[in-house]
Design a protein that fits this description.
The structure is a single chain. By secondary structure, this protein is α/β, with parallel strands linked by helices. It starts with 10 loop residues before the first strand and ends with a helix. It has a single domain (about 10-255), classed as 3-Layer(aba) Sandwich (Rossmann fold). The chain is globular and about 50 Å long. A seven-stranded parallel sheet has the order 3-2-1-4-5-6-7, with helices on both faces. It has helices at about 20-30, 45-55, 70-85, 110-135, 160-180, 210-215, 225-235, 255; strands at about 10-15, 35-40, 60-65, 90-95, 140-145, 185-190, 245-250. Helix 4 runs parallel beside helix 5 (about 160-180).
């Protein structure tokens, strides 16, 4: 019997993939059998380290620099990915742009940065990936990193929350439009994360989280990039073959307790 969680031989592209959650996704996909391309704005030591770890697993890996909010750059980037890997089976949308600001202090620049990278960029990359998947006719998977902020509001998250809520709605629309082509589209909602967690090491305990907040998380621990990566692997695997249009919290139960 074949392994329903294997992605052996698949070609995956992870945007925002050189560190933190993006690295966790890229490494989990490689661990499951994928050759992996990663994108970020600039190549640097973080990108090289992620490529090194992917290759250490015996997978092919390549870095594709570029601004995902620019349509021409995205088109060129996907053309380069397809030329290098011969096709695309999986797209993981992951980048984050901008920082939190209180509503009364929120600048147009910060609003635009959050929405341009965190929503427009997801749309542009998904469209390029989906067109390539449709042309090849073998289906595929698109998984986008949203956030618990897409479902609940916290102080100072206006622009970020709006982008992440948009990702959830975008995911549902893509699932409806692309289902007939065998393309499944889902979203992941991380909660409070230890983004510096090292892949393959034990999950962290409380760490530096405020005790009151920590105790509000039912599992009493932070999430890790590895947690997010393996959830992405599941959603892209044959085991999730009838799952599309869903938003999966990977948050230790945080949303279940949030007011």
């Amino acid at each position: 019997m074949s392994d329903p969680y294997s992605l052996q031989g698949k070609k995956a592209f992870v945007t925002g993939g050189k560190r933190r959650i993006g690295r966790g996704i890229a490494l989990a996909l490689a661990e499951a059998g994928c050759d992996v391309g990663i994108n970020d704005l600039h190549a640097d030591a973080d990108g090289e380290e992620t490529l090194r770890q992917i290759r250490q697993m015996g997978r092919e890996a390549e870095f594709f620099p570029g601004d995902i909010s620019d349509p021409a750059t995205v088109e060129e980037m996907f053309a380069a990915f397809l030329a290098r890997f011969g096709g695309i089976d999986i797209l993981a949308n992951n980048p984050y742009g901008g920082t939190g600001q209180a509503f009364l202090e929120l600048t147009e620049k910060n609003w635009d940065l959050n929405l341009d990278i965190g929503l427009k960029g997801f749309f542009l990359c998904s469209q390029q990936a989906a067109r390539a998947m449709v042309e090849r006719g073998a289906g595929g998977c698109i998984v986008s990193t949203s956030s618990v902020h897409g479902r609940r509001a916290w102080k100072g998250d206006t622009a970020y929350g709006a982008a992440k809520a948009g990702v959830l709605r975008l995911t549902e629309s893509m699932a409806v439009d692309l289902g007939e082509h065998g393309i499944r589209c889902n979203a992941i909602l991380p909660g409070h994360m230890d983004t510096d967690h090292l892949f393959g090491t034990p999950a962290p305990e409380r760490g530096s989280i405020d005790k009151k907040f920590f105790n509000s998380i039912p599992l009493r621990r932070q999430g890790t990039p590895e947690d997010i990566g393996r959830a992405v692997v599941f959603l892209c695997s044959p085991a999730a073959g009838c799952i599309t249009g869903v938003s999966l919290p990977v948050d230790g139960g945080l949303l279940a307790t949030a007011p």
